[in-house]
Design a protein that fits this description.
- The protein is an all-alpha fold.
- The protein has 3 domains: 33 residues; 93 residues, no CATH class; 81 residues, no CATH class.
- Helix content is 71%, strand content 2%.
- It contains 9 helices and 2 strands.
- A two-stranded antiparallel sheet has the order 1-2.
- The longest helix is centred in the first third of the chain and has 26 residues.
- The protein is globular and about 55 Å long.
- Belongs to the binding-protein-dependent transport system permease family. LivHM subfamily.
């Protein structure tokens, strides 16, 4: 809990720094807010899709497969799991838990940065607070899928992402402003899963 609060505090701090830098650039006449990056994306005429819609899902599947192999087929992965389940016992058997935690922070930062480099390609206009807009969806996807499983984040991400787009589009003929409340859909799914399956979908699958 302490690390989570510290991470949120650092996130707020760096977002503030980015906004200060963006304001300085704006005063210098350099456009730094609401920058369009979608034009950098490649288009696939044969499929009628932008490249990011192909690359992002494939990248997510590839990363999930690599993490699965890492955590189940390597000594480092076993050390990760031992550190998470019982750090004291892991230290007794010779696992350098401090090094494992450092590697885990590096992996988290790397994967977060990788996702952050792809996300602006989905946006018409990118801005310094773009990451904050995703926080409700990220929390919902993580908990809905299950925090104890690598596949949970992937499954939860697809469920939340598709729901936030499909449900508002289905209701838009009856309520024109429903698209502004797409995060309500993810929160509703999150609450439902917490009530029916507190450990998420993967926890429910493992239990059955």
């Amino acid at each position: 809990m302490t690390l989570m609060i510290a991470s949120l505090a650092m996130s707020i701090f760096f977002i503030g720094i980015m906004n200060i830098i963006a304001d300085v650039y704006e005063r210098l006449g350099i456009r730094s807010r609401d920058v369009g990056l979608a034009y950098l994306d490649l288009r696939i005429p044969e499929l009628g899709l932008r490249g990011v819609y192909i690359v992002a899902p494939l990248l997510a599947l590839g990363i999930t497969a690599v993490l699965h192999l890492l955590f189940t087929r390597t000594k480092l992965g076993i050390a990760f799991r031992a550190t998470v389940e019982n750090p004291d016992l892991a230290r007794v058997v010779g696992v350098n838990t401090e090094r494992i935690l450092a590697i885990s922070w590096f992996l988290s930062g790397f994967l977060g940065g990788l996702g952050g480099s792809i996300y602006p390609l989905f946006l018409r206009l990118a801005h310094p607070n773009a990451g904050d807009d995703m926080l409700p969806s990220i929390f919902a996807a993580s908990i809905v899928g299950g925090l104890q499983s690598i596949y949970g984040g992937l499954i939860g991400g697809f469920i939340i992402g598709l729901s936030e787009k499909i449900v508002p589009s289905l209701l838009s003929p009856y309520w024109a402003g429903i698209t502004l409340y797409q995060y309500v859909v993810s929160m509703a799914i999150l609450i439902t899963v917490l009530v029916l399956a507190p450990r998420g979908i993967m926890g429910l699958i493992k239990r059955t």
